[in-house]
Design brief:
With 340 residues, the chain is α/β, with parallel strands linked by helices. It is 40% helix and 16% strand. The chain is built from 13 helices and 13 strands. A 7-stranded parallel beta sheet has the order 3-2-1-4-5-6-7. Helix 3 crosses helix 5 (120-129). The protein is elongated, with a radius of gyration of 21 Å.
Length: 340
């Protein structure tokens, strides 16, 4: 592989889909230098912290271009890869124009729609002048198809190896013998926590505990829905907004099913959903949504269940089906694990 710079705002140990995706592919490639402005990162021989966005000069990314230009010359870099159209894609494009350094853009879903909305002409130039485009799912590729780009496009689904973890026995014991329904994801409308809560409220048998792991702007709205409108107790529906990396695996260990039927809300879409792979790694049966990127991994009734994320009754039936049929839940979880 050519001597490469991965230019990114997000990289491990940052907790996010793009950071996890990049780390999964580039951590074992010695010719890749990671250049990031992420604050909390362990600098090493291959991971470099650099100022990429200025505070005063306009455009602000010129600071990053100047710093990256020096880095590329000093390290004889032959290729730049970036998962950000704006502003890091602008840096990559300017570097190609001034020094001829080729670049690849890695796309993940929402980023495409937001960039096209912000400045379509500039976004298209970055995509058209790229030497290659990588997308994380066939679902995301379909977003690009109407643009008829001349740039080659490759689908590279996440390659994630989840680290071994020491089970937190205190956490596991606290949910012993409970039917735990688990959702992990940012508390935003796209993740569809609202319909999950409404579906759970319809279950005749309330013998379950619903754990919602994540934080985000919808937290207060979801708590009002759960505790005031739907009448759930705070023990039955729990919001865990500060779960550490090392403890997250323990919650997957203790869960019975994983539910995340994401929604496509205009430009706001789920590009892939690496969390499905983490649930599969723990042999959990998964409920996800049709006509989303989840279909790149989940085959309905083979290694998970796909539902209409807007149909609360359909979601309720799927949850009830897995909570009451342990054999089917076990088979779907095993099949999900085997699909990795």
């Amino acid at each position: 592989m050519r001597k490469t710079v991965l230019l990114t705002h997000e990289y491990y140990p940052y907790h996010g889909g793009i950071a996890t995706y990049l780390h999964g592919y580039f951590k074992f490639i010695p010719t890749v230098e990671i250049v990031t402005d992420q604050k909390e990162i362990e600098q090493s021989a291959t991971i470099h912290q650099m100022k990429l966005i200025g505070s005063f000069w306009r455009p602000r990314w010129h600071v990053g271009l100047r710093n990256l230009r020096k880095f590329v010359k000093q390290n004889n870099t032959e290729l730049v890869i970036t998962p950000h159209i704006f502003p890091l894609g602008q840096i990559a494009l300017a570097l190609k124009k001034s020094q001829g350094t080729p670049y690849i853009v890695s796309l993940h879903g929402l980023d495409i729609n937001l960039a096209l909305k912000k400045n379509k002409a500039a976004a298209l130039e970055i995509l058209q002048k790229a030497d290659h485009i990588i997308v994380n799912s066939n679902f995301v590729k379909k977003i690009l198809d109407p643009l008829q780009l001349p740039t080659p496009i490759a689908v590279l689904t996440p390659n994630v190896t989840f680290p071994e973890h020491a089970p937190n026995q205190t956490i596991i014991e606290s949910y012993k013998d409970k039917n735990v329904v688990l959702t992990v994801g940012r508390l935003v409308k796209r993740k569809n926590h609202e319909n999950i809560l409404r579906a759970l409220a319809l279950l005749a048998d309330k013998n379950f505990t619903y754990l919602i792991i994540g934080n985000g702007p919808e937290e207060n709205n979801l708590k009002r829905l759960a505790y005031e409108e739907l009448g759930f107790g705070r023990e039955q529906v729990q919001f865990l907004t500060d779960v550490s990396h090392k403890d997250l695996g323990s919650y997957f260990d203790l869960a019975k099913i994983f539910v995340l039927p994401t929604l496509n809300l205009g430009a706001d879409i789920e590009g892939y959903g690496i969390v499905y792979l983490q649930a599969a790694d723990h042999s959990l049966p998964i409920i996800a949504a049709r006509e989303t990127s989840a279909e790149d991994f989940i085959q309905n009734n083979l290694n998970g269940i796909l539902v209409n994320g807007q149909a609360i009754d359909e979601l309720k039936i799927a949850i009830e089906r897995l909570l009451t049929n342990s054999d089917e839940a076990r088979k779907l979880g095993a099949a999900a694990k085997a699909s990795l």
